[in-house]
Here is the input.
Amino acid sequence: MLIMTIVYLILLLLLALSARTKYYLYAKTASSLCFVVIAIVGAISRHAMYTLLLMLPGLLAFMLGDIILAFKSKHSLLLGIIAFSIGDLAFLHFLGDYHDFGLSSLLLSVIALISYVFIAKKGIIDFGELLIPSGVYAFLEGLVVMKSILVYRVVPTRFFLFIMIGMILYLISDLVLMIFKFKKKSLAIGAAALALYYGGLYCLAICFFFI
Here is the structure.
């Protein structure tokens, strides 16, 4: 795991250095693929292939969404939101086996949706044509983060601890990314969003080493 972690960090460094160059897409693809490889190696080493098959759709959707966002086309942000939403649904399906759906599962989603509507209504951030897709995504993300917290409360293992931490970092990274994309394109804010996001994905990947 140590060697893969070092490789992952090197790829993230190359990703940062390649920003605004023609190599950025390749660096981002390699970084995204790396966390999937870490998850696969962890699952193989711990004989957890069935669990990997349940989580792999979510990991692959996150990887695809990340790669799509590297493109600067008109529809890349929308397609990225769709891919990440699919990833959220896949993880919800996986976590649903460990905690039944209830009102408590909706707590963070409701907070996220109310906050989103407030931000949009007040014109704090102009989401434009992404208003509805972003709202749906915010709801799903709140739902999957809350579900990961509830599952860890029921099954307090290191495996689910890393999933919970990964999901929380994933949520925080999107909040930072929202500011970067729609409000203030600062290099520091963009770097913080990437660090939080890849830190979250790293937690989702290494959880297999603790199953």
